[in-house]
Amino acid sequence: MHISSITLLHFLFLGMILKETTMANSMSFLMLLSLLAFIPLCLCRTEGSLYPQYYDKSCPKVEQIVKSVLARVVAKEPRMAASLLRLHFLDCFVKGCDGSLFLDSDSSRSIISEKESIPNRNSARGFEVIDEIKTALEKECPHTVSCADISALAARDSVVLAGGPSWKVALGRRDSLNASLSESNKNIPDPNSKFHTILTKFKLQGFEMVDQVALAGSHTIGYSRCISFNQRLYNHSGKGEPDPTLDKHYAAELRTKCPRSGGDKNLSPLDFVTPSKFDNSYYKNLMADNGLLNSDQILFTMNKESAEMVKLFAHSNDIWFEQFTKSMIKLGNLSPLTGSKGEIRKNCRKINT
């Protein structure tokens, strides 16, 4: 709990009095104790803060409802766990964790959806699951739980359902009244970007290199389209040759799924060893030159510090889980709208009328 600055000053003032007051003077001591009754000790959370118990009174079943929907969805389609985890990342990296990603385009309100950005178009998925959770929560506790909070909870629970770690999700985010197509195009790391470019994008969000490497491990689950890594198979660095940091046998296998022309939408698992299990085999793959995306493999080949982190996470699943949860909490705290800012959308796809 947060203690207000005014309350802290009260305690400091009392400390000064106590220093001058001794137990020998019982009358003075009793008078001092009586003063305590008139000091408003504010042990409440300040307005605008996020905390796990935010919906305890207004919507106590929120986490139960989110988990129930996700358990059914992921059991039917395991790939959806990775998709929902990615949605949280895509939302938070643009204007903060404010649900702006979920807005559809609306010309009457000059809203151009972030779903139409280059990183998201024909790639980001799982929006219908967020809609399903929102519908269930609106029935249970109308106009209470934000889409931004739904996304944060869905990301955590998706990781858990895939066999990964859990963490306390701080809640209390509100939803944005607009979206930013330009920031989505600018802020989301590209799978073919250079190491320094990706690191810079993470640092602009307040992350350190260890966060970048730990969060990249989310690619231990999910799939990627051929268009995202075809360059590594056929035209690395524009020289018409395969990427030398890609294992030759792995590259040959990928070429059977991703021809030189056509097949751009064909899918390949980001972690071919355990594609649906949240574990550290992703990092072991990087050490064997079996990273699918360029943005993955360069963590091991282009920077000594990040390479050491890859080795550490490959060695210990527990160490990676610990850092991953810290970095996910940090991600969820990126510039949320709280207090009276934004709104609680009734429909995640459009602002309230």
From TrEMBL:
Any one cellular-component term (Gene Ontology): extracellular region
Binding site for heme b: 219
Single GO molecular function: lactoperoxidase activity
S-S bonds: 59-141, 92-97, 147-348, 226-258
Catalytic reactions on record: 2 a phenolic donor + H2O2 = 2 a phenolic radical donor + 2 H2O
Site positions (Transition state stabilizer): 86
Major location (coarse): secreted
Ranges for domain Plant heme peroxidase family profile: 49-352
A Pfam family assignment: peroxidase
UniProt: Ca(2+) 2 binding residues: 220, 271, 274, 279
Binding site for substrate: 189
Keyword Glycoprotein attributed: yes
Chain sites annotated for binding Ca(2+) 1: 91, 94, 96, 98, 100, 114
GO terms for biological process, alphabetical: hydrogen peroxide catabolic process; response to oxidative stress
SUPFAM superfamilies, sorted: Heme-dependent peroxidases
Biological role stated in the UniProt entry: Removal of H(2)O(2), oxidation of toxic reductants, biosynthesis and degradation of lignin, suberization, auxin catabolism, response to environmental stresses such as wounding, pathogen attack and oxidative stress. These functions might be dependent on each isozyme/isoform in each plant tissue.
Record's protein name: Peroxidase
Species the sequence originates in: Canavalia gladiata (Sword bean)
